């Protein structure tokens, strides 16, 4: 009985981004996010997301739609989609991972964190600081100590590029 | 609209997750970025490295605290300062932990986090090298049992066993090869399986010791047999891993370098694998420079602040 009603009339949700754009999605797509699921269970159909900007939200809705239709046969297609999804700039990855964390979408979180980990592979701490716009808060003495205890690649093996 | 959030404001759970996805060398770098990143990586242990079944090789010496780490998966060399390994000998290596002997002290050591766990001293003053050792599980495990074996006098093997949950000192067991009219002396590697220690000797000899009934048993390893009573080893072993892979060249070491290596046991794709100890000679006619080395899983373990070996 329940399934017939669902096919006839899909339950919809409205998501509102931090920059006040509204998106309508199917409830079954949205509840892959634990945060949205909890709100839906409390009877909400309008979900304000003050921590998620439009640009990231559009991408995340795409991701949720794709993954909601996961079947045995489209495994390869989803893999390709995921690969394209993470093929973006560090700044975009940052927005996406913050949003995925806020929305509690664990599979997306894992994928984004592993992507970031893979992308900082072989980079020196200096290059990592530049990429992530981080100020080093170690004193020069502390840094010298850390540098000694760190694995120093033989010359020329560190990747100093910023992408 | 583009937000101007800063990466350093990233919640620590995200940083933790990123740190968990890093291999050893990148994790060490990650910890050097800033203080927040360092504290967020407290639980990261370079677990990703255990998925690759090739252990790394760590070269150290008595002269210098500088060590060289070679990663065979990437063919890269790194230098790391590890003062604790100066004038030390590794007796055993498993799951990212080393059992180290240094001037009469015995301790567990994770060389990359420099976490160290002191063990009670062995009673005798003797030099336990050349000998071999094995531990059944990581030193934080309550079931960790450590065994060190060496040739005490002519034809007497002395085994020292320390059970974490048991006695606070080492228990001694002797195996008299002469009395048994058997020949077992040099230990070339050790591993354990299911409450039994396996010590590999030369000439295909194998000495076992079962923890439950404290009994020694001597075997000869055969490679093929039609005898139905022949038992199977619960692990595979590899010999001459260093020389066969031409690591001297890979690590840019000269012909005058001589190395005594400590093997390791690890889980391969289909079975447990023991890399045996090995002695690499310097090229004849050169004045040998002596080094030590150990095969190790490149893991990063920190001890909880309230950790103590005795339970």
UniProtKB/TrEMBL annotation, chain A:
Query: Where is the SKP1 component POZ domain positioned along the sequence?
Result: 11-69
Q: Which InterPro entries match?
A: SKP1 (IPR016897), SKP1-like (IPR001232), SKP1-like_dim_sf (IPR036296), SKP1/BTB/POZ_sf (IPR011333), Skp1_comp_dimer (IPR016072), Skp1_comp_POZ (IPR016073)
**Keyword Ubl conjugation appears in the UniProt entry:** no
Which keywords does the record carry?
A: Ubl conjugation pathway
Gene3D superfamilies membership: Potassium Channel Kv1.1, Chain A
Family matches, as SUPFAM superfamilies: POZ domain, Skp1 dimerisation domain-like
Q: List the pathway annotation.
A: Protein modification; protein ubiquitination
- A Pfam family that the UniProt record links to this protein: Skp1
Residue ranges of every copy of the SKP1 component dimerisation domain listed in the record: 108-153
Q: Which family does it belong to?
A: Belongs to the SKP1 family.
Q: What does this protein do?
A: Involved in ubiquitination and subsequent proteasomal degradation of target proteins. Together with CUL1, RBX1 and a F-box protein, it forms a SCF E3 ubiquitin ligase complex. The functional specificity of this complex depends on the type of F-box protein. In the SCF complex, it serves as an adapter that links the F-box protein to CUL1.
Subunit and partners: Part of a SCF (SKP1-cullin-F-box) protein ligase complex.
What this protein is called in its record is SKP1-like protein
UniProtKB/TrEMBL annotation, chain B:
Under the heading InterPro entries, the entry gives: F-box-like_dom_sf, F-box_dom, KIB1-4_b-propeller
* Record domain F-box: where: 4-51
PROSITE patterns membership: FBOX (PS50181)
Q: Which Pfam families match?
A: Beta-prop_KIB1-4, F-box
Which parts of the chain are coiled coil?
Answer: none
Stored PANTHER family:
F-BOX DOMAIN-CONTAINING PROTEIN, TRANSMEMBRANE PROTEIN
State the protein's name: F-box domain-containing protein
